[in-house]
Amino acid sequence: MSEYITVSYLTEAKDLYKKAEAIAVGMTVGSWTDLPLARQEVLAPYLGTVGSVTITEEKDGLQQGIIAIQYPTGNITPDIPALLTTVFGKLSMDGKIKLVDIDFPPSLLARFPGPKFGIAGIRELVDVHDRPLLMSIFKSCLGLPLGELETQFAAQIEGGVDLVKDDEIFFVDDKAPLAERLAAYNRIIETAGRPVLYAANLTGPVHQLVDKAKYAIERGANCLLLNVLPYGFDILHRLAEDPDISVPLMAHPAMAGAFYAADEYGIASSLLLGKLMRLAGADLILYPSPYGSVALDRTEALAIAEHARSSNGVHKSAFPVPSAGIHPGLVAKLYEDFGTDVIVNAGGGVHGHPNGTADGARAFRAAIDAVVQGQTLAEGAKSSQPLALALEKWGSA
Amino acid sequence: MSEYITVSYLTEAKDLYKKAEAIAVGMTVGSWTDLPLARQEVLAPYLGTVGSVTITEEKDGLQQGIIAIQYPTGNITPDIPALLTTVFGKLSMDGKIKLVDIDFPPSLLARFPGPKFGIAGIRELVDVHDRPLLMSIFKSCLGLPLGELETQFAAQIEGGVDLVKDDEIFFVDDKAPLAERLAAYNRIIETAGRPVLYAANLTGPVHQLVDKAKYAIERGANCLLLNVLPYGFDILHRLAEDPDISVPLMAHPAMAGAFYAADEYGIASSLLLGKLMRLAGADLILYPSPYGSVALDRTEALAIAEHARSSNGVHKSAFPVPSAGIHPGLVAKLYEDFGTDVIVNAGGGVHGHPNGTADGARAFRAAIDAVVQGQTLAEGAKSSQPLALALEKWGSA
């Protein structure tokens, strides 16, 4: 029996149903009604069909709404380039249209790797099971000598973060090469006496990234950061499916706004950063929080977390990491919105603390401990001077 | 002496100059005025600067316009993932902003491969020097047995096309595997007794595409088609720079609309499909023509051709292939807009000819011959029954 991928588009047309039919045929077998019967028999298994048409508005003679097209799974190889080319290749250039969702049958899901560690696996690695994790970002990396980066790293660890990530623009690292950073940071982690994940930025030619990842792991990397969209989803998939890449993969959303930011074009953030990132194998998914200046629409931000964490029957869950603009005063709100299985991630909100980086991290840890115990942040601040100072500086939401 | 990449963005802000300054600092060293002098000295070579600010409109307290930021070339490794992450990673998610252009110093250009064959090289390969080339697209590929594809291929060759390309959604080719297609089509080309390029769709895991390309070439491929954006620009770069990949690379624009279609977000088509495709090594660049139903803005379509063909002091030129909606009646217009160094590319405009595919190609060849000789299409149709029939069906522009 044929199985289908159901693809939803937000679009407009004089007659939305006719447009849906044209897409179903045009994006699969090309033409249909004018084909001889014998050809129709050959091509029937490849023909797309209209799943549904929902008109949400009609004005100026145009119907706007969501159309769902069913593409036979047999039309694609199980990889994201084939998927995106098939369902949004030509179509992306054909007037107002936004790719908003894709539903996969379990048989196709199973041919994608999904997260290797997932939320449970990452909790094992950092040995933290009952609270949101805390991650911090280097204030900056580019151009800094290794010694200064070590100082930054040590301060973050001292304050109690569970994960640290490289700046995503850290490509030129001649002053602090990857192998040297790994050695230096691992010494600091060892001294701290507790597990900390350090996400090293994976860079270089795309066809060598699998080897580069293995090189990093041999030199002590315990997590890898990837700019998934600039490199293309498929390399994430190939890293995730490789059994020798034995560390979690952290997906950075660099360039994602170029896809999702327009209302009427592109690809919805929940699909791009939620479903597709998880499918391709991200253990941790960074994306704009709904709070900061680089903010994502709240519904979309929650949908990304939903796609990352909810059961899809096949894959492990991925950790949502709603980022940007996070300070300790937002932790209660963040916990309310995202629950326990979330990573609190901050850069300026850690380093900008009045007492510096280590107390910045302590303020976050105190805020997390407070909300998990059902306290308000103000209550938590009574037993944490760092949190009290942070709330004084940033307020609370 | 430092060199800079100059990156232009279309954006808006209360104070556009302040926004430009914030981007210049925020996207490079992170912070500046609050840094101690010693740190400023270390980081100065990495600091971005404001090149220019051009306000085009002020309304509702917002300035709209173009800001140009200068990024030191030393901030990036010479690859497109590093470039795009650095200049549009976080920034793409930061409100209304569109990446409209990037100017590269020659020293950086020289570190990208550019086209291996270019226009002159492709003209040598097909031995056509004085007219636009003619390319045709299979009516459809997916699901068809090899025999039917051979029939389609032979008809296109018989009619006189210079290049034929696979359908870009041709991923599942179990009924006509790559090696078998190559063998069959090459027999047809040999029989025809003149050189024809066949662009075979390059598919598979991204980290294996270099090997897959070599496999195809060993089995007779003389041109390769790549869905560059779904795979990511970097694999095009790696294919282009590999000396053993001795055939032209044809870039398909699948998914490009997700980047360029919105006015206020994403990446301009002239940069995406013109400059970056050429930089990364496309010999032939497909993109929406300004004529058809899947149409691109005329200025942008001409700018892509300009970026593909004009001297940049370093790279060979690339063939622009403005596609979609092309029929023989558009050839005069196309020649007027794009000149001789263009590829006339059609699918429906070839196969939809009243007499079928071969005459469809003949009609195009007659139209091309006519305009190159300074004749009107109507004049050309006097000595070409296929062209006369085509003009009758489609009219002329």
From TrEMBL, chains A, B:
A GO term for molecular function: ribulose-bisphosphate carboxylase activity
Residues of the Ribulose bisphosphate carboxylase large subunit C-terminal domain: 118-394
Highest taxon above the source species: Bacteria
GO biological process: carbon fixation
NCBIfam families from the UniProt entry: PRK09549.1
Protein name: 2,3-diketo-5-methylthiopentyl-1-phosphate enolase
